[in-house]
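RECORD TYPE: protein structure
NAME: N/A
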Amino acid sequence: MAASLDALSSPTVSGTVFLLISLFLVTVLRRKSSGLLPLLQVRQRLPPGPPGLPLLGNLFDLPQGSPWIGYRELSRRYGASSRLVPGHEIIVADARASGNLVHLQILGRSILLINDVGVASDLLEKRSTNNSSRPVSTAVEMVGWEWSFVFMPYGKWWRWHRRAFWQHFHPGAVPKYRGILEQGAHRLLGRLLAAPDQLEKHIRYALGTSICKAAHGLDIAEQDDERMEIFQRALKSVDVLVEGSTVLERKQYATIQSLFPALALHPEVQRSARAELDRVVGPNRLPTFADQDDLPYVSAIIKELLRWHSVAPLGVAHCSVADDEYNGHFIPADTTILVNMWAIAHDPTRYPEPGRFRPERYLKEGELNPDAPDPTEFCFGR
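PREDICTED:
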C-alpha cells in the first residue's frame, strides 16, 4: 500500500493525472459551451422581462394584490429594449411590440404578458391557430373540471363544444333572451325596494335565475329554491379554481355591483342619466331593450363601466402550441399568454384621464360616437 501511494505521489504520475484531468475538463467545457450557446441565443431573443433566480425564475416578481396593476408596472420597467447577443448582430424589435410584451419564467414555465391591443390582435387573432389552447391546470384536473369548455385545450373537442355553444348564443340569438333579462331586472328592482340592505344577495339571485332560465328553461321564482342553492354552490367552486373566472354569472355580477359605487362617486353622471330616462321613458313604466337606441347616455355609462372596472382584468389565459417568433422575439411552445385587459382599458393614449369615470368620452353631439374606442370590443382569441 505504501509503495502504491509513493508511486502515485511521484512527479511523473502527478503530472500525468493533472494533464488527464485538464484535458477532460476542457473537453466537457467545450461541449457544454457549444450546447449553451443556442440556449443563450434563445434566452437573449425572449421578450424582455425582469432577471430571474435559478430554478425559481421570476416567482418573487409576481405582483400581489391587484396583479394587473403590477403587470403594467413590469411592462413600463422592462418592456422596451434592444438586445445585443455576444458575437451576433443587434436584434431590434418593433418599439410598440417591445414596450408591450413582458416575459416571465415561473418554475420553468414561460408566461407572456401583453399590454397592447395591436399585439394582442396579432398573436391571438391573426395567429390564433397557434395561440388558442389553454394552459394545463393541476387544480382543474384534480377536481375533474377538465371537461369544461372554459378550461378545455384547443383541439377537436374544443371546436365541437364551441360549435354547440355558438348555435344558442351567437349575436343573432341574443334578442330571444331579452324577455328573460327584462323579467329578471324587474324582479331585482322589486326585491331591492323590499330589502335594500341585501344588495349582493339580490343581484346574485337575479342573475342566477336569468341564466338558469336561458340555459336550462328553469323558472326559479323564490330565493330559497333548492335548485338556486345548487347553482350558486357550483359557481363558487368554479371561482375557487380560477381567479378572474370568465363564467357569465360572475362577469355580470361584477359589472352590476360596480355600477353602484360608480354612480355614488359621480352624482353628476347619475343626474344626467336620470334626466335622459325621464325624457325618454317617463315616470309610468320601466325601460326595455326597445328604448336602447334612444338612451345614448345610459349606453355610454355601460361602456365606461366596462372600461373603468374591468370584469376580467387579465382576460382568459391562452397557451401557445408550438414555438413562434414575433417581431424578433422568440415565444416558446407551451407559453401561457395573458392579455392585461385592465392596462389596455386604462391606456392614456386611447382613453385620456383613464382614472376618471367619464361616459362623455363615447358621445359626440349627444349621440354615441362610432369613432370612440369601444371597450366591449376588447375580446381576443378563441
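COMMENT: The chain has 15 helices and ten strands.
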